[in-house]
Design goal:
The structure is a single chain. It is built from one helix and two strands.
């Protein structure tokens, strides 16, 4: 997926050993998609989205929170 879409500086994770990822990431096990924004190992924002919730409003909120790591 990452190579096909030419993603750079983006971590895509599909955990096998720990289904909900690292505990400090606060992954919601009921989420269909989780977007975690972090810098230097520290989580600055998390968006847990259920089925059908990855919509324009959610994308705008994610983009807005991306600003927290660009300062």
């Amino acid at each position: 997926f990452a190579a096909k879409n030419k993603l750079e500086n983006v971590a895509l994770v599909v955990p096998h050993d720990n289904q909900n990822g690292p505990s400090e990431f606060g992954i919601n096990p009921n989420a269909e998609v989780t977007v975690t924004i972090y810098r230097q190992g520290k989580v600055t924002a998390t968006h847990a989205l259920g089925p059908g919730q990855l919509n324009e409003a959610a994308v705008k909120a994610i983009i807005k929170d991306t600003g927290t790591i660009l300062k």
